[in-house]
């Protein structure tokens, strides 16, 4: 069929024009690549020279960049980092669901739903306003101290609860922006067919809205991944807490570097993936024509 | 003749601006009503009021004799009235087939099989069977609008409303959409169409209503309205259309 061939041709055109764009933005061909390379080398050599010739460099190097120390602390920190990943994955699932509920509550129309809307707004304002580390400290130290037998005592659980509360406030705003970006004519079309408000939301509005906000959602999850380290302040031995233990034992801070490498190993690929999604989205919108 | 739809002294304002200022209209079964008039005369608003997409300030609307002005279940009423919009409004994240089967399955509770059977029958009838798996952005405007008509027909409505359905189309795509509407008229579908396609209205309509400033100023059979309009404002409106070579 013609459609399939067309689509492949479109993709090919898009790929070529992207390559061209990248080259053009530099100013033309191989020459711009060479200039970029040279200026990068010069820049880093200069910075490296300035740092390594600073008066305190030998001391800093011993304290922060000790290769032997790095190798000896890394395995244990990597093991502890598994807890960060666990915290991240569990929170993420709850955030995605809870934030969606908040966003839907906030988009309910009419005066009847005013209390729910007001509640959702107050929630987002409150939890975006308090520093994450405070929420974690208050819940992590406060909730178990209540001494109630039917709530969990684990500080890690309360750390996760705190992250879910805080991040849901941000993510619900992202969802809401997505919902509001869907043209009202889509709702009119669905309602005119006799679909209820709930069916319209579930079948027509949300699937389109969620698709649109995937890149900004991933952005928030990069932040979440880093903030799992805050749960360590409650005492759970995750990567940051483990590196604290190591530095306290040896008076050498290289362990922090080891923890940092682990975080970066997750967040940078996530950031690149987000950029790729955004770029793909933009290309689609430019070549796809009608998407409204 | 049984009355399919009756509109009585319908008023509708947006803020301070009164868009509909007392509309009276009775539509018999199998009748095709063409609403003509300048942009802003209230054609679209009237259609949107009839299927309750806009709330009505005062007046009454009866569907097959039943008062639907403030119904207990709006959705039940909307299922009986199909509407097609100027801007197609297909669901872009769904294939053609899914666009057409969504409402029959979710709103009428049809099984997937019978909904698809019904959808494929309609798609086939209007030359769209080979597009069933395409997404709307891969279709031409004319094809999208035909799918939108099929989507409304899949609910097996008693009444179809067409809101300037060819206004957003490239001229060469208008004919295929009008052909579909013509076929529906020939099949006995009761419909009201707001349109700028005067020659089409003349050919297809059993009655033409000229809307002016929120009122039906003049109505009658196409032959009379288009050749011997009584009202001066109707004459002037048609003269402008003729000058623009649209009739």
Report on this structure.
The complex is a heterodimer of chains A (292) and B (247). Chain A has 292 residues and is mostly helical. Chain A has two domains: 1-53, no CATH class; 69-288, MetI-like fold (Orthogonal Bundle). Helix content of chain A is 82%, strand content 0%. The longest helix of chain A has 40 residues, at 67-106. In chain A, 26% of the residues are buried. Chain B has 247 residues and is of the alpha/beta class. Chain B has one domain (3-89, 157-243): Rossmann fold (3-Layer(aba) Sandwich), CATH 3.40.50.300. Chain B has helices spanning 43-50, 74-78, 96-106, 112-125, 141-153, 171-186, 198-204, 222-227, 232-243; strands at 3-14, 17-28, 32-36, 58-63, 66-67, 81-84, 159-163, 190-194, 207-212, 215-220. In chain B, the strands form two sheets. A six-stranded mixed β-sheet of chain B has the order 6-7-8-3-9-10, with helices on both faces. In chain B, helix 3 crosses helix 4 (112-125), helix 3 runs parallel beside helix 5 and helix 5 (141-153) packs parallel to helix 6 (171-186). The model of chain B has no long low-confidence stretch (mean pLDDT 92). Chain A binds chain B through residues 3, 185-186, 188-196, 199, 203-204, 207-208, 211, 288-292, and chain B through 51, 53, 75-76, 78-79, 82-83, 85, 87, 89-93, 102-103, 106-108, 134, 136-138, 144, 151-152, 155.
């Amino acid at each position: 069929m013609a459609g399939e061939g067309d689509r492949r041709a479109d993709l090919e055109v898009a790929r070529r024009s992207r390559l061209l764009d990248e080259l053009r933005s530099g100013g033309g061909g191989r020459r711009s690549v060479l200039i970029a390379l040279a200026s990068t080398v010069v820049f880093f050599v200069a910075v490296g020279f300035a740092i390594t010739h600073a008066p305190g460099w030998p001391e800093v190097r011993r304290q922060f960049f000790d290769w032997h120390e790095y190798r000896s602390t890394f395995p244990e920190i990597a093991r502890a980092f598994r807890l960060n990943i666990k915290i991240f994955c569990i929170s993420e699932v709850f955030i995605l669901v809870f934030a969606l509920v908040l966003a839907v509550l906030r988009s309910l129309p009419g005066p009847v739903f005013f209390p729910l809307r007001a509640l959702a707004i107050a929630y987002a304002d409150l939890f975006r306003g308090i520093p994450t580390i405070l929420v974690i400290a208050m819940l992590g130290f406060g909730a178990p101290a209540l001494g109630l037998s039917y709530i969990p005592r684990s500080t890690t659980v309360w750390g996760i609860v705190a992250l879910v509360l805080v991040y849901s406030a941000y993510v619900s705003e992202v969802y809401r922006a997505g919902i509001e970006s869907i043209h009202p004519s889509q709702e009119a079309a669905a309602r005119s067919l006799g679909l209820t408000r709930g069916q319209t939301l579930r079948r027509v509005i949300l699937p389109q809205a969620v698709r649109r906000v995937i890149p900004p959602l991933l952005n928030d999850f990069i932040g979440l991944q880093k903030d799992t380290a805050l749960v360590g302040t409650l005492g759970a031995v995750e990567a940051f807490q483990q590196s604290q233990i190591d530095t306290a034992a040896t008076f050498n801070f290289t362990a922090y570097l080891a923890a940092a490498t682990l975080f970066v190993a997750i967040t940078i690929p996530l950031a690149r993936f987000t950029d790729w999604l955004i770029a793909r989205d933009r290309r689609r919108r430019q070549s796809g024509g009608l998407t409204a | 003749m049984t009355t399919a739809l009756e509109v009585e002294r319908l008023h509708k304002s947006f803020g301070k601006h009164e868009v509909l200022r007392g509309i009276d209209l009775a539509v018999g079964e199998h009748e095709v009503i063409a609403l003509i008039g300048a942009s802003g005369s209230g054609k679209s608003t009237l259609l949107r009021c009839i299927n309750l997409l806009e709330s009505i300030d005062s007046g009454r609307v009866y569907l097959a004799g039943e008062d639907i002005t403030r119904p207990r279940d709006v959705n039940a009423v909307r299922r009986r009235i199909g509407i097609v919009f100027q801007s197609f409004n297909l669901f872009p994240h769904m294939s053609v087939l899914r666009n057409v089967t969504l409402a029959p399955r979710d709103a009428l509770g049809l099984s997937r099989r019978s909904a698809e059977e019904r959808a494929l029958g309609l798609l086939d009838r209007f030359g769209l069977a080979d597009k069933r798996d395409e997404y709307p952005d891969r279709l031409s405007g004319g094809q999208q609008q035909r799918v939108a008509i099929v989507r409304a027909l899949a609910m097996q409505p008693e009444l179809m409303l067409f809101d300037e359905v060819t206004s957003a189309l490239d001229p060469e795509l208008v004919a295929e959409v009008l052909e579909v509407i013509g076929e529906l008229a020939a099949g006995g579908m009761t419909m009201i169409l707001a349109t700028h396609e005067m020659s089409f209205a003349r050919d297809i309509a059993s009655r033409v209503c000229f809307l002016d400033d929120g009122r039906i100023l003049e109505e009658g059979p196409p032959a009379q309205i288009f050749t011997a309009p009584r009202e001066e404002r109707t004459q002037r409106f048609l003269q402008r259309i003729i000058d623009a070579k649209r009739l």
